[in-house]
Design goal:
The protein is α/β, with parallel strands linked by helices. It has one domain: Aldolase class I (TIM Barrel, Alpha-Beta Barrel), CATH 3.20.20.70. It is built from 11 helices and 8 strands. Helix 5 runs parallel beside helix 6 and helix 6 runs parallel beside helix 8.
């Protein structure tokens, strides 16, 4: 978006949609995860990732490890990292048992593997990422602002503090993750987040930015009228 510092990364698992936004220069990077792949009907992880890399060769793209055991995570991370210079490896902040993943992140980061630490929700986890990334390769800390908001908490204070904490680690960027609405882009900008992930549904709303509210009201009324007629509703 013009005039904004925050970078838009498309979050999804549809190759067709990813190629579309790439060709239209709407985003500066891509992220995906196993849940999004499952929802999109992806059946072959390796085939999907290779198709994505081939179609999107020059923008950052993150792929997640599939194991819950740290030795296997490391093997997978090194394999994924070898797929391209633009590839980041997603590693969750803990495994499913709650064991801290940052020692693995530190080892990989200091061995030139670009890591995107995912599922971060607390400031203590952000601080642990600083220690892991310090002096290492380029990294991303994905703070799930949307999931924080799902608990009834305002994510803004946490996101602002996360950015402050990460200033001591210039090789890593803060990513506003799990966006819910277009407004989140402006919130991420105001927090000085480096990146925000947005779904294709949110990207489709970009033409609404700055739209006259009276015109939007009229457009909404016309939508209701057209949908009622198309459905054949009668009273």
């Amino acid at each position: 978006m013009q005039g904004m510092r925050v970078k838009l990364f498309a979050d999804g698992a549809s190759i067709v949609e990813m190629i579309d936004v790439y060709k239209r220069n709407l985003v500066q990077g891509f992220t995906t995860n196993p849940t999004l792949m499952k929802k999109a009907g992806v059946r072959d992880y390796l085939r999907f990732t290779q198709e994505a890399i081939e179609a999107l060769p020059d923008l950052p793209i993150s792929f997640e490890v599939l194991s819950d055991e740290f030795p296997e995570m490391e093997r997978q991370a090194r394999k994924i990292s070898g797929w391209g210079e633009n590839v980041y490896v997603k590693i969750p902040i803990t495994n499913a048992r709650g064991d801290d993943a940052t020692p693995l992140v530190e080892r990989l980061s200091h061995d030139a593997v670009k890591i995107n630490v995912t599922a971060v929700l607390t400031l203590e986890q952000v601080e642990a990422c600083v220690a892991a990334f310090s002096g290492g390769a380029s990294g991303i800390v994905s703070v799930f602002a949307g999931r924080i908001a799902d608990t009834g908490r305002d994510p803004m204070p946490i996101m602002k503090k996360a950015v402050q904490i990460m200033r001591s680690c210039p090789n890593a960027e803060v990513l506003w993750a799990s966006s819910r609405e277009l407004l989140n882009i402006y919130q991420a900008e105001s927090c000085n987040c480096h990146i925000i992930t947005v779904t294709n549904d949110i990207l489709k709303k970009l033409p609404l930015v700055g739209m006259d509210l009276r015109e939007l009201s009229l457009e909404t009324v016309r939508m209701f009228l057209a949908d009622a007629a198309q459905a054949g509703f009668q009273l």
